Amino acid sequence: MRKIIATSGAAALVAALLSLPGAANAAPSDTRQIPSSGTTSIRATAAGAGGLQQPELRAGPDGEGPAVPSARPDPNFKHGIFPKHPLDAPVVPSSAVAATNPAVRASIQGLNHRDQRTANGGNQFSLEPPDQALCVGNGFTVESVNSVLRVYDSNAQPLTGVQDLNTFFQYPAAVDRTKARPVFGPDVIDPVCLYDPDFGRFVVAITTLHVVPGTGDFTGRNTIDVAVSNTGDPRGSWTIYSVPAQNDGTEGTPDHGCTTDKGAHGPCFQDYPHIGGDANGIYITTNEYDLFGPNFNAAQVYAFSKAQLAAHPGSVRVTLVPNLELAGTPGFTVWPATSPANQYAADANGTEFMLSSVAGDGSETGNPTGTAKRLGLWALTNTASLDAATPDLRVTNRLVTSQTYVFPPKVEQKPGPTPLRECINDTTISTPFGPGCWQLFFDPPAPAHDEVISHLDANDTRMQQTWFTNGVLWGALDTAVRVGGKLRAGIAWFSLEPRINGSGKVGGSIKKQGYLALADSDLTYPAVTMLPSGQGAMAFTVAGPSHYPSAGYVPISSSGAVGPIHIVGEGLGPDDGFTSYKAFVGDPPRTRWGDYGAAVTDGSSIWMASEYIAQTCTLQQYLTAPIGSCGGTRTSLANWSTRLTKITP
Question: How confident is the model at residue 46 (pLDDT cuts 50, 70, 90)?
């Protein structure tokens, strides 16, 4: 989930980003003791009805107000600066597409929207996008999305049913539909996952927005919730720690001065969490915003002792490194690196490297051009101090010159059946409420019957997954490219050799970099991972006029060669989810796609997770009972799916 807002002083900040060679800072930090909030396990709850649950969005049967909505768009997602695509988008050759996939050892459909919506007896909201988390180790694979998780074996065969995240983190259901009046549980969103090979523990973390049970309104309280498996078997017990993160001075949090829309003091909100780890710690970074106001603050780091988490004590220390700053601008989406076992940086008593871009969409970074030629290289040093009672973490960063990256265009979709869209536009089909399929969802007056096949969100230029192996730091992000004479969404990838100098400051330069593009197609939401052998892979979604949204990847050779493109899950139809349509989310709609994918290593194997569309059906099939399920392949409001793939290079 992301919240995008506009900032002032853009010209000055852009000038700073273009002129300053680098910066270093030692941010003050605070350490708190966080008591365990209990234990949990992955125990699948019964699935609810898979079709249209009447009434969903129509008025309640008593006529006194709206029924419980099935869909909950991201409540804090705000549109800010949307740069026009500059003429200097890099011109990139089209990559080849492999005809076979000999490295694939397993590839299956993972969690999908039907799993998400029907979990916990159907006491869930429809959520878009899935926001994939993936961690693998000790013979197990854990996948999580908004807002469920599941365990698989080393061949991608399910070992558990589907568990909703509200129940897993010991919260009430997202919405209790069994009550005469609905009772709402917290918004449990943006899952991330990491397997720690040193202690053999799985870690799943989320952002939680707490709500008033009777209304679903946000209370202002939000937490970073961390669940740690007590053993190397994720089917066993987990211990939960809930870190207050509103940072308004309550519950022992620092006061970061967040405000409301009216300028009053208010709570902050930790958005878009990401996870990484080194030999000593596990790190969750966030983007901090006003929860009820317009402002972005800065990236934050929540640091935990890895050894302490693995011991699952009654309380753990968490050290907050607040308000990261880069060359006079707020740090934004500072993604911490993940490493295979024994591939950590020992410099400066333990170092965790991180990467960021300096463009985004411009609203957080103050760069309204939507383009940049620099990356933010970060180091969190003295991480061995996390095992002490009073950790003393240091932050240092530097701007590194890179190839150009540019705010990407939206993704054109190949035409195909979109029964939800067709239902909204229909005015003739008979329903219990009158003529017009639209009446299954909406009270009169009728919505405009002019919905079109959507263009998928291609992200902005924020950094995506970061990986550190053999002393090399890898990352990738979305960019506009010109390929085959057309403007498309593509990928910019980077490898850097970071170092810590004698003064304890980070330095380094680009070792290799490049672009990935495909003619008549768009590539989005990259996730790169690297083996100690020097080989690796990068997962992404392939979509556009030539492909329905599909799961793809490229291998990376030990010499750093990237490609060709492999399609491991060919899409079967267009995206047809509620965020695509004005009738549900207002005008203009924004088709939520991705936010992030995932790729990890496990021994000599690589696992990847990407979003794709695994089904297709006509409006007639959609209206066959149970309505909206299309034979158990989707729900009435969305049809996204994920693909899990294991390769051995």
Answer: confident
